[in-house]
Amino acid sequence: MHKTSPFVVSQLLNRLRMRQVALMLAFAEHGTLRGAAVELGMSQPAATKMIQELESALGQRLFEREGRGQRMTPAGERVLGYFQGMRGSMESMARELDELKLGSAGRLAVGCIMAPLPTLLNQAIIAFNKTYPLTTIQVTLDTSDRLVELLKDGLIDIAIGRVRPEHKALFGFQPLANESLAVVVGVGHPLSKKRQVPFSSLLDYPWILQPSGSPMREVLDQEFRSLHAPPPRGLIETASILTTMQLIADTTMVAVIPLSIATIYARHHLLKILPCHIKHKMGEFGAITRRDRPLPQAARYFLSALHRSRPPPPQA
Fold this sequence. Notes:
12 strands; alpha/beta; 45% helix; D-Maltodextrin-Binding Protein, domain 2; 3 domains; 316 residues; Arc Repressor Mutant, subunit A; five-stranded mixed β-sheet
């Protein structure tokens, strides 16, 4: 594998300016060099010169003309991705420095999908709290695609979810477990007493699904396509388990949630798990971290606690 010479890297670090990084990030936000220049309080000619100096330092064209404006080249898109990682690292550093200034023992920000909440995440938090009792743990619940964006922007330290193949160069992924899905309804739903419920029979009811782009939603979209049926009209899209629970309790809506969550609520007679088979399966979820950002010691301990909480492999 080709490795960049340390001398070349040191040259680049000497020539690279944070103002150039900020300009590239501003261009990505505004879509025009003029808008980026205005945000940074500089003239457009000054911004153009700064981009030319960056292109000279990197030895690559980062922009090309498109009509009366400019767009990024493939090299520019790649450089932008690294600069976004730098911004995330700076945000993480600023957060840690603020914690030190306030005299805190630190903060760990974790993002998580629904499935690991009652088992893996809960046990890891308990173990972590015993070793780091003064560290604040901030937990964000969302879908995998949104958690990856938070991780990319430096707003969380660890994500527990799924990562797409095209993102694996940027993120490290440590598998944790598989996730089974359950079709659920309120306890008074017309189908709640059925011994067998074909998936096709659910199409007559309103649905609650996770937002488009999330892995769970993609699995359900595949299920609808296999029946040559479009997703139900009047769909409610939410990643909130509390919103889902309230809606199925008060309506005849149908929802799909992780079996680990559904089992807890069913045990307390708050929902009914339908005997309905979903053909398509979810991929394995795991711990996701940035490859280009070192993890603090506390975050590394939390990762080890997650893996100690993994369920044993099924018996052959």
